[in-house]
């Protein structure tokens, strides 16, 4: 379960980085010409929507895993 959570967090960060990249390249084509302004905005919005969807899915999977007993809270170790 720990590996799945780490992979999901990496996917969320990748989607966020992709949205940032689309925002920085807004209006620039690889050959130097400009795109129509709507194209990069759609890709950035899609990347941000993917990030939100992955975050919600991860939260729901963690709740489900807790309910099924796959994970349990361990708390902080107390020093006497």
Considering the chains and any ligands shown, give keywords for the structure.
80 residues, mainly alpha, 0% strand, elongated
Concise overview:
By secondary structure, the protein is mainly α. It is built from 2 helices and no strands. It has a domain at 2-22 and 41-68.
Q: Mind explaining what this structure looks like?
A:
- The structure is a single chain.
- The protein is 68% helix and 0% strand.
- With 80 residues, it is mostly helical.
- The protein has a domain at 2-22 and 41-68.
- Helix 1 (2-24) runs antiparallel to helix 2.
- The model has no long low-confidence stretch (mean pLDDT 83).
What class, by secondary structure content?
Answer: mainly alpha
The end-to-end distance, rounded to whole angstroms, is 31 Å
* Mean residue pLDDT: 83
Query: Which descriptor suits the 3D outline?
Result: elongated
Low-confidence stretches: none
Helix percentage range: 55-70%
Number of beta strands: 0
Fraction in beta strands:
under 5%
Largest sheet descriptor: none
Task: Give the radius of gyration.
Answer: 19 Å
Order of helices and strands: HH
Q: Give the helix tally.
A: 2
């Amino acid at each position: 379960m720990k590996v799945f959570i780490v992979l999901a967090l990496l996917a969320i960060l990748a989607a966020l980085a992709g949205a940032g990249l689309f925002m920085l390249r807004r209006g620039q084509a690889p050959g130097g010409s400009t795109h129509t302004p709507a194209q990069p905005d759609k890709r950035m919005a899609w990347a941000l929507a993917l990030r939100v969807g992955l975050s919600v899915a991860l939260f729901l999977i963690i709740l489900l895993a807790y309910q099924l007993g796959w994970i349990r809270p361990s708390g902080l170790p107390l020093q006497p």
